[in-house]
Inverse folding.
């Protein structure tokens, strides 16, 4: 077995946004850091590829989380090519009759756009937006720190708790109650209390429904909306989009990491974390190469980290039992299209189509789309969030042509398999044998199923943009099973685990392990499966870097 | 005549509150709209010779300290065991759990060995959870936005006990508050029918499905009764659930309370922001410095008071409080006993609860129907035949059968040509349709609902049709009209996280008090919520006596 002479302070596994962020911050802290990426380029879900000659599409993610302020500032990403464009329209919702409702970032413009639909809702919008912002700011105070430890609270935990309590107490009383009520509510109830226009209700509610196994009538989906909004409250710039899309984020993070001395190796797949005397001391690659380090940091999801990369003998059986039960039911599919021209979506203007566009006309439409997923079927009328990035960046497609990217929900990873549960083994029972890997889905969609999903998506798009089908030059449909297989996301879950009430804060990924550490000394987590883990914000990676740098000091 | 306190509503919580107030020496008057006491815990002879627990039909949660303090057995309350739960399955098999632990273990092992083991673990875990939750039932919820020292201490004590739990139990506790019943049970069990039947207790009285987050909590709500040792299971009350109410009423009278039936209240009287008494529908007035309403907040504040007497944000909170009745009841007078295909005969499986909950997907599909405004084509049904245990409720050889049915949404979609063609009608349109005056859709669909229930039972016990002598169908609308429960919600408001503890019924007003001095709430719409528990009535009385 070859042994490289280089010794690192930290090895980061996986070059996704959080892995890159964490590695760059560790490098900045003066730690000798090596980042290992299995694929041919870093970026993870924030990638881009050429779908057809001259057509470049965002492979998976078509927008970022948004990127957190401390990540942008601490790593001086602006110096590494990152720039922002403010987007005038936060989201555009399409109605089946061809009309479109644009929610402008500017409050006055938004009120003007809502008024034709409902005077009442136009009146309610500014107060709602402000209230949501204030409430989200309190939630956001929890994002930039390690979540408090309930078992053994230290000074840091008390400080976090007090900071959040302070922000909570400073809220106007109405908003304080809203924060307590909204979190556990169904997002459908939340928006219905405020608005009467179904299109508007659905457009706002959908913010809280991306990526998870929750419909608008699922209790706790209100919290998703707060989390989504809280991302914005700790973002570098509110209502701003990274110029060049998610790939630009990967590129600037990669540049920042290199600048801080991080060694980056692609085509380097980790086979196992080496544990010696209860400590992680390095990794073995699939090539057989062994690399030693003082700490190992996994940017992969918790299931993959502990169930695939670790030998079960180093982990307590109960810990493994609980990791197996982290819910990672992926429900998002992705469709990329190369189009010969810009499709016409009813009355939606070019400006409206420049931002995210939603096809989800009513709350019941959303819920019906979700119903199928509960029985392991893909939705026959999915809700779709699409972007046409070539409107803003003409270089993505040949002159006059466009690329369209669509998030499609709900397409459960378990399509075809009728399994609802994850098997059974009681807590504290016999630890499962090594081969018993969780099988929430794990059955790849067949080619005909993928075709069926794709046809459904195209038929849905065609209803809102008649003639779109005829513009398709090239296409691609990525199912959650593909995300699991090719991107290594357990269950195909884009957030590395559902953002449910019992899987967040100090419970992400598990209660007692919400601080980026693991039962093995020197083995850390920094991926989306840790707090706050709300998408491509770099938040988990940055938080983890603080903990790891402290531990290695 | 001037009283110290007037209690509106003679349901079990109103009576409990009155009894405690009278026991402390207050002159108390209870006013009940109907001719019988009990509210939804009532026994009525609907058909000659057949006595029904018309609404609420099983007893388990009633706080032991209330039974003790009010000496209820001496006033005629007697609880009879309701042994086991029998679930028939369409494949000819069944699941039959009984109080005899070993027997149940063997029965579950027949379906899955692993599950038989897990069943013990699960039971132990739930008892721990119940132990944690129990003191919270007796607590007046603190106000987290104010946090006076007392409230802070209460919250700290909860936090401290939470930290004192074993790590495992702590995780369970958090999951219980946030997960869906099915996800929660998935962690223990693999047998579908077992999970389906157990998850059923998570959805009773709520407009949520077994896969909806938040339903695991209601599992606990239904386990809490099992932890008091004296009576480790659900039971029936001899003479029907009305006998429990009557016993509490008798106890209240013995302490000097005056109780009037057939006395509907029309208004709550106030002067300078203080409650001064009530006016009846017949114009009579009664005066007291303390008025306690055991009726739900919609009636109390939006019907019996003028909005102008209340702060606007409070009124808004009351309006937002969700009822969403989701269940109905079918009461049958039978000429004999049903014969289940999967387990023929009249064995003791008929003496417990009979649960029509054959699979998790069956339960979830029943919910899907309701979400879009239909009663379930194949509903979840919880059946008991009290006459097998208590012969006083039916003529010899005859039986009463109580069928609790879910889902039956209060907001029912119109079944007309037009909607059948369009297919879609949003919840909003249904809400609006309801505001139109005139006939309610349930009046048109009541019998079809009853037929569906019978058809569903007949799939498992085909002889049921031939046995029916009389049938009473209660829709959520009927429950609202007859028993004064808004939108037919059996818990006076949904038991969902955003309506529990310090959020029940209105944020900032979870301490049995109201913005009107001297006016209190003591019904199931207050902490800790519904079921024949009595805790809201007792907690409220304590709050009132504190002044």
């Amino acid at each position: 077995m070859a042994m490289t002479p280089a010794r690192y302070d930290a090895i980061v596994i996986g070059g996704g946004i959080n892995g890159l962020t964490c590695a760059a911050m560790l490098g900045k802290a003066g730690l000798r850091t090596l980042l290992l990426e299995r694929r041919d380029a870093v970026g993870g879900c924030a990638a881009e590829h050429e779908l057809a000659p001259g057509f470049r599409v965002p492979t998976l993610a078509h927008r970022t989380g948004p990127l957190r302020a401390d990540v942008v500032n601490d790593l001086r990403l602006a110096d590494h090519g990152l720039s922002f464009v403010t987007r005038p329209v936060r989201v555009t919702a399409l109605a089946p009759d061809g009309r479109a409702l644009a929610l402008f970032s500017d409050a006055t413009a938004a009120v003007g756009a809502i008024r034709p639909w409902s005077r009442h809702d136009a009146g309610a919008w500014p107060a709602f937006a402000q209230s949501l912002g204030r409430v989200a700011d309190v939630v956001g105070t929890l994002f930039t720190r390690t979540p408090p430890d309930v078992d053994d609270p230290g000074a840091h935990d008390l400080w976090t708790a007090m900071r959040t309590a302070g922000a909570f107490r400073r809220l106007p009383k109405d908003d304080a109650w809203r924060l307590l009520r909204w979190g556990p509510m169904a997002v459908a109830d939340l928006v219905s209390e405020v608005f009467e226009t179904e299109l508007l209700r659905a457009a706002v509610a959908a913010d809280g429904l991306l990526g998870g196994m929750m419909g608008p009538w699922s209790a706790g989906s209100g919290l998703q909306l707060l989390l989504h909004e809280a991302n914005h409250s700790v973002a570098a710039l509110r209502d701003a989009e990274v110029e060049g899309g998610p790939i630009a984020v990967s590129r600037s993070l990669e540049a920042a990491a290199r600048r801080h001395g991080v060694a980056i190796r692609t085509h380097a797949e980790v086979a196992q974390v080496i544990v010696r005397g209860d400590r992680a001391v390095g990794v073995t690659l699939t090539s057989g190469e062994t690399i030693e380090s003082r700490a190992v940091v996994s940017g992969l999801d918790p299931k993959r980290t502990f169930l695939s990369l670790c030998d079960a003998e180093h982990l307590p059986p109960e810990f493994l039992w609980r990791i197996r039960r982290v819910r990672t039911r992926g429900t998002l599919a992705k469709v990329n299209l190369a189009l010969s021209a810009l499709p016409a979506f009813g009355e939606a203007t070019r400006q409206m189509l420049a931002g995210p566009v939603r096809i989800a006309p009513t709350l019941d439409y959303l819920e019906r789309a979700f119903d199928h997923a509960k029985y392991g079927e893909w939705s026959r009328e999915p809700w779709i969030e699409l972007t046409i990035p070539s409107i803003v960046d003409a270089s993505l497609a040949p002159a006059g042509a466009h690329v369209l990217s669509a998030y499609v929900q709900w397409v459960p990873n378990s399509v075809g398999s009728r399994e609802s549960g994850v098997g059974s083994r009681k807590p504290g029972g016999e630890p499962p044998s090594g081969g018993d890997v969780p099988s929430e889905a794990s059955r790849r969609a067949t080619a005909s199923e993928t075709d069926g999903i794709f046809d459904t998506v195209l038929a849905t798009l065609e209803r809102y943009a008649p003639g779109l089908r005829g513009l398709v030059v090239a296409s691609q449909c990525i199912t959650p099973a593909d995300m699991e297989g090719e991107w290594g996301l357990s269950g195909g879950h884009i957030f590395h685990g559902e953002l449910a009430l019992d899987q967040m804060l100090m419970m992400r990924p598990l209660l007692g392990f919400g601080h980026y550490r693991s039962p093995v000394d020197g083995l850390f987590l920094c991926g989306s499966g840790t707090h706050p883990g709300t998408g491509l914000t770099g938040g988990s990676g940055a938080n983890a870097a603080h903990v790891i740098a402290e531990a290695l000091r | 005549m001037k009283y110290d306190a007037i209690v509106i509503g003679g349901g079990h919580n109103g009576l409990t509150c009155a009894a405690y107030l009278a026991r402390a020496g207050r002159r108390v008057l209870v006013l009940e709209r109907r001719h019988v006491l009990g509210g939804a815990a009532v026994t009525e002879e609907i058909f000659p010779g057949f006595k029904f627990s018309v609404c609420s039909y099983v007893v388990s949660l009633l706080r032991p300290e209330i039974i003790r303090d009010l000496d209820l057995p001496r006033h005629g309350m007697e609880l009879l065991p309701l042994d086991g739960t029998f679930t028939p399955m369409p494949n000819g098999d069944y699941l039959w759990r009984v109080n005899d632990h070993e027997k149940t273990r063997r029965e579950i092992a027949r379906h899955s060995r692993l599950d038989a083991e897990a069943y013990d673990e699960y039971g132990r875990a739930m008892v721990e959870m119940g132990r944690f939750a129990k003191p919270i039932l007796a607590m007046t919820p603190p106000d987290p936005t104010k946090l006076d020292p007392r409230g802070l201490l209460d919250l700290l004590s909860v936090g401290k006990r939470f930290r004192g739990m074993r790590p495992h139990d702590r995780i369970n506790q958090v999951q219980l508050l946030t997960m869906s019943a099915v996800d929660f049970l998935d962690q223990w069990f693999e047998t579908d029918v077992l999970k389906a039947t157990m998850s059923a207790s998570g959805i009773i009285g709520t407009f949520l499905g077994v896969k909806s987050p938040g339903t695991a909590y209601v599992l606990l709500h239904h386990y809490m009764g099992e932890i008091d040792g004296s009576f480790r299971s659900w039971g029936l009350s001899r003479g029907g659930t009305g006998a429990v109410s009557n016993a509490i009423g008798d106890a209240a009278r013995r302490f000097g309370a005056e109780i009037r039936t057939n006395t509907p209240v029309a208004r709550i009287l106030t002067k300078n922001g203080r409650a001064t008494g009530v006016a009846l529908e017949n114009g009579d007035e009664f005066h007291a410095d303390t008025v306690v309403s055991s009726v739900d907040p919609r009636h109390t504040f939006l019907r019996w008071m003028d909005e102008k007497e209340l702060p606007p944000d409070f009124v808004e909170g009351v309006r937002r409080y969700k009822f969403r009745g989701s269940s109905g009841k079918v009461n049958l007078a039978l000429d004999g006993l049903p014969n289940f295909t999967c387990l023929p005969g009249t064995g003791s499986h008929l003496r417990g609860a009979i649960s029509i909950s054959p699979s998790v997907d069956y339960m979830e599909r029943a919910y899907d129907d309701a979400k879009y405004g239909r009663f379930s084509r194949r509903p979840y049904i919880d059946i008991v035949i009290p006459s097998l245990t208590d012969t006083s409720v039916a003529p010899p050889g005859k039986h009463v059968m109580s069928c609790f049915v879910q889902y039956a949404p209060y907001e029912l979609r119109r079944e007309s040509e037009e909607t059948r063609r369009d297919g879609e009608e949003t919840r909003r349109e249904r809400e609006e349709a309801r505001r139109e005056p005139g006939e309610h859709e349930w009046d048109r669909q009541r019998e079809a609902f009853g037929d569906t229930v019978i058809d569903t039972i007949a799939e498992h016990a085909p002889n049921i049709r031939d046995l029916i002598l009389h049938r009473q169908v209660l829709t959520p609308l009927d429950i609202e009209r007859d028993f004064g429960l808004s939108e037919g919600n059996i818990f006076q408001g949904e038991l969902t996280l955003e309506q529990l503890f310090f959020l029940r019924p209105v944020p900032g007003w979870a301490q049995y008090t109201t913005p009107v001095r001297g006016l209190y709430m003591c019904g199931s719409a207050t902490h800790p919520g519904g079921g024949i528990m009595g805790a809201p009535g007792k907690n409220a009385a304590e709050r009132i006596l504190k002044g």
Notes: Confidence is low (pLDDT under 50) at residues 1-5, 416-442 of chain A. Residues 18 and 538 of chain A are 5 Å apart (CA to CA). Residues 119-140 of chain A form the longest helix (22 residues). Chain A has 17 helices and 18 strands.
